[in-house]
Amino acid sequence: MTPTVREFRPADAKAVADLRRAALPYLLSTPQGIAWDVAHAPAAQCLRLFVAELDGRIVGAVRSALLYDSSLPGQSAATPQVHPEHRGRGVGSALLAAAEAHLSEAGATHLYAWAVDEPGSLAFAERRGYRRARPARFLRLDLRSAGLPPLPSPLPPGVRLCTGADFGADPRPLFEADAEATADEPGEVACDAMAYEDWLLHTWEHPDIDWNLSSVVTVNGDIASYTLAEVDGLGRYSTGMTGTRRAFRGRGLARLAKTDSLRRARDADCTAAFTGNDATNAPMLAINRAFGYRPFGAEWRCVRELSRDRDRDRR
Q: Which terminus of the chain, N or C, has less C-beta within 10 A?
């Protein structure tokens, strides 16, 4: 049976969240988060979420969007996710074709997609013209048995621990720290054009981020390091981002922020913590392994040049 590909509808949110958890168990996904992303997508993102149906059941989905928060124009992303029980039936191919057509029409020149680090997924990407760019590692920590380190007492002079919620009256300093750290993340496309208004909508107000579990380290009143906590209401916690401003790096402040956030998560009855890192990010991988995180998944970021396809079609 040929899958039917159509636009996402708000009523699909739970089915898409369930599908994503089944396909990629190391990534958090909630119905409210999916619905929020679609409903509040900025026009410049050109976001479209497609779903694939077989026998009236959603068995695949792909989120296709321009990387509008990068200063490099023409960059885009789309990764098909197919339920494990329905792979090999053309679902991924149909979803990727829909995403590629949309993004090409939106003016994308390069499309980045993630492929699970296993032969079938990598072969699927290569057959469709995608080349491997860089690897990522996903880790899991059992919070029920983890021997989390204690917080230092007292804290170093001038150092203070806060929650993200403490910045509710004025979140701009947190935005500035996040923008600086995110711009330095390893990757082919830098997220270096983040606007405050977009950050408020897609980070500060996002329903999956728990600001009471997010930790912020200040030094003499200035934000130095932070970790953003995402939760799914099912006992799962994920590090959305951990970053340290350039002037404060090399002082162990990221470790302090993560220690505080993980301890808060455990006290809030979270049972499993997840995180993902670029495979070249040795400092962050070392920090996570020291906490007791263990490998749980791996992916490759792959890229295809859509501009070449358009040039070929014109000839």
A: C
Closest listed residue to residue 181, CA positions, set 162, 159, 203: 203
Give the H or E element holding residue 289: helix 282-291
- Angular region, 242: left φ>0, alpha ψ -120 to 50, beta rest: beta
Tokens of 280: 């070249």
**Cα gap 205→211, rounded to integer Å:** 10
Strands 272-278 and 236-244: parallel
pLDDT mean by block of 10 residues, the chain; 315 residues:
95 98 97 97 96 96 97 96 95 98 97 97 97 97 97 96 98 97 88 93 97 98 98 97 96 97 98 96 93 97 81 48
State the Cα–Cα distance between residues 167 and 20, nearest whole angstrom: 32
Q: What is the pLDDT of residue 186?
A: 85
Helix%, strand%, coil% for the chain, nearest 5 = 35, 30, 35
Rounded to whole angstroms, the Cα distance separating 54 from 44 reads 32
Q: What is the DSSP string of 7-32?
A: E--GGGHHHHHHHHHHH-TTS---HH
Q: Which position has the token pair 């885009």?
A: 76
Q: Which of 223, 215, 217 is nearest to 268 (CA)?
A: 215
Amino acid at 32: Q
Cα-based distances in Å from 144 to 22, 185, 195, 311: 23, 30, 38, 55
Helix, strand or coil, per DSSP, at residue 287: helix
Identify whether the C-beta of residue 231 lies closer than 8 Å to the C-beta of residue 214. Answer: no
